[in-house]
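Lay summary. Proteins are chains of building blocks that fold into shapes, and those shapes determine what they do. In this project we predict the shape from the chain. Here is one chain we studied, written as its sequence of building blocks.
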Amino acid sequence: MRLVDTHSLRLVEFTEDKTPYGQYAVLSHRWSDDEVTFKEFRKGLNRDSIGYRKIVAACEYVRARRHAYIWIDTCCIDKRSSAELSEAINSMYRWYQRAGACYAHLQDVSSSDAADEAMVIDALKASQWFTRGWTLQELLAPAEVIFLNAQWQAIGSRQDDHIATAVSEITGIGLYDLNNFNHQRPSVARKMSWAARRVTTRPEDLAYCLLGLFDVNLPMLYGEGMLKAFMRLQQEIIKKSDDKSIFAWGWDLPGEFGLAWYGLLAPSPAPFETCGEITATCDGTDAI
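And here is the predicted shape, written in a compact code that computers can read:
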């Protein structure tokens, strides 16, 4: 695992047995067009870019909170290596889960939105951060999630009652699952419903971003398209779990949009949108 030293801003590589689990911070953010790559950051390039300034600001913020290291996806993964990218994506949920804290930087939420609690909630509801595929695991995996506005000021924590209530309403994730997520408790259909309205830049990532939530692994095959990637994801889930709610997708859709068209497996998370109340079952009778 590769981390940024928050004091020197240098990349440090750790073997599994030396990784400071429970101590490093992780940054969750929505990518812009001006992010700094691993190669650029290592060579000290593009220091005037928005992406580089974001890394510096993140290091300053978490260093003040006694985190000596931070993991940032843009600069800690060498995406030129398909093997490293595949390993990182398959390990990402665990990296977030074992972090000391996750800091979610909401670039589209301003300090002016913090005048009162109602304005904060409205700003959260309008944030694009909650629409992205990758941020779903970044919301659920860490033990602690702190939301920051564009000016790197704390908005609140996922554990705060008013924040949790708002996030639950925005995401459709129940309050218990929001702060006590466990792979095995929610049904497959329910977890899929949380991703139903989320989007990713690369189509395959709509499947790959869900690996951690279902505790499965997949090789990355960019170029295969979202349909094939999502089919592979469901096949791996079926191998690992006997929860038949995975077949409950599109239960409220006319036949030509459901099983009659695609078969047993869903074409994407979208048809699971209305499955948020379906519980796990192994006997073929999903409960709603």
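What the prediction tells us: Strands lie at 2-5, 11-13, 25-29, 69-71, 101-105, 145-148, 154-157.
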